[in-house]
Amino acid sequence: MTEATLPLQPGAESVERVQAQSALMRVVKYSSLRLFALFITVVIGVYLTIMIANMGGYVDDIKRGYIREQVALSIGFDPTLKDLTAEERQAYMSQRVALQEKKMGLDQPFMVRSFRYLSGALILDLGWADNMISDSGSRQVRLIILERLPATLLLFATAQFLLFFVSLFVALALSRNYGSVLDRVILALAPTSAAPSWFYGLFLILVFSALFGLFPFGGLVSAPPPDSIIHYSLSVLNHLILPVAAIVVSAIFLSIYSSRTFFLIYSSEDYVEMARAKGLSDRAIERRYILRPTLPTIVTGLALGIITLWTGSIVLETVFNWPGLGRLFYLASNIFEIPVIVGSTVIYAYLLAITVFFLDIVYALIDPRVKVGGNEGGRT
Q1: Phi/psi class of residue 280: alpha, beta or left (left: φ > 0; alpha: ψ in -120 to 50)?
Q2: Could you tell me the residue ranges of all domains in the chain?
Q3: pTM for the whole thing?
């Protein structure tokens, strides 16, 4: 009987079961502690956002002043109140102001309301906007944000995935042809990524919209919107080209340069040279010994790029008049629309925390040096 067919020793199965249970408990413990730490981080971040958005309560004073101004104007233009004495007018005005402040929750101290905002935000009860409304006429913050979400996802998903795959394949090609003319050109163009996407957006609008008239200046779709689904999609695509180009151009060369550098570092390792000496093909070496060690870095870049899908870009969307979350945040900041600002931040905080958590799990799957919940043989 060979060693492979020998039966397990009586205690071998129980030992394996104990080891599996121990590993499972270690993963559960690590995941629980990690989720708790991320939740505490989200709570702190959201509360700081509430404090900053309200300027520590100063925005309440601005709102109270606005209420008094509007009430005074309405009383002054109301002919039915012209016969009131000064004392009666003042009493009526104070009553109206008190009702408006109670309606907006300003009759309670800011610190009390800040914790109410926090508890509601953490369960995604984002409340009602004071001034902004959705296209359907609702003041629910959730609906206001959800209406803007598809436009941001369309723009940044297209740009980020195009940027990711193009930079990855071009970087691999450059690592095979180190020192070539194209490699030197990419290296020389890498500093151009220092300019933000909105800068290239302005340049592209000036050239391709104002000068040549090839693409629209901005917006999501032409006005009035086409009735046909095909024509509507083509109109959206036409409006999408310039903002996507601005995002890709602003980051493509630096992204290629970074990935190409990692590929070159790992391609010069001793085990790669040994694999070449054994006669392995270049494709097999790239797949097993170059791409595999760089997967954590690649996955991190992709995950952080996905996060931007949910946040948008305030300046870029404003430049292109793109009706996404970034422009929504800009408009909300201008009119002190605190519920919308806090709601956008809460969604971003939760997505960032979830992404960080799943990155830990993905690292353990793709990198054998990473041990989840343990210190043996690698990182925790």
Answers
A1: beta
A2: 30-122, 141-366
A3: 0.72
